[in-house]
């Protein structure tokens, strides 16, 4: 009798666990892909912070140039002469370290405008050209790299400490699966046999087919934002390179297995 009761209890527990797991999977599927919706409040907040920023640096008011949906700065269009973010030196210049620290202080102070704070970004490169430095920051608050030009911010500052360009493609953080449901080999198989249409140098339409696994390389998992009319859809995808000459980058959804984008790679 005790054995029968124990078996019945285990059966009931397993049924509850399986039901909970199934419900969790349905909820996950229903919430995927993640979506960043357009927001009137987000735009109004961005415009308020922009006006405060210009006032703080005694820059004449000018409308902000913002990206749609995220409402992060796309440029400093209309800001004549840039924004002075460093103190004056006797020779009118700033050393490299001082410029870097001044940029970081600016980004930290105006994190509500940037859409991120210093803990969620990483300085990846500093390039000096002529009388300015270009600093490139990457967004690092997602588990995987962000693709297609999102998740990157370019800041240009002159050697005398004037911010002359700010191009911010950071996106708000959203919840994504931590692991793929579609493995690397399954993503590769999705591309084998795929045909691509392209135009040759004469403008004639051509077809290219990926005929074997050897022509496919699955590079990595990435976060892929897809901008639509009034929202940004955010997916976890496999980044796959297909073909030889020409070649394409194909994004295979790591949760659903769907191909969500294919971009021809252009040699430079």
Mean pLDDT: 89
Task: Report on the biggest sheet.
Answer: 5 strands, antiparallel
Report the span from N to C terminus. Answer: 77 Å
Please tell me how large the radius of gyration is: 25 Å
Order of helices and strands: HEHEEEHHEEEEHEEEEEE
Structural shape? elongated
Q: How many individual β-strands?
A: 14
Unreliable segments of 5+ consecutive residues: 6-27
Estimated helix fraction: 25-40%
The tally of domains stands at 2
Compute the number of helices. 5
Structural class: alpha+beta
Approximately how much beta-strand content do the residues carry?
A: 25-35%
Overview of the molecule:
- The chain is an alpha+beta fold and 268 residues long.
- The chain folds into two domains: 35-168; 184-265, no CATH class.
- The protein contains five helices and 14 strands.
- The chain has helices at residues 2-30, 40-56, 96-109, 111-114, 184-191, and strands at residues 34-37, 65-66, 73-75, 83-84, 121-129, 132-139, 152-158, 162-168, 195-199, 205-209, 216-227, 231-243, 247-253, 259-265.
- The strands form four sheets. Strands 1, 11, 12, 13 and 14 form a five-stranded antiparallel β-sheet that branches.
- The longest helix has 29 residues, at 2-30.
- The relative contact order is 0.13.
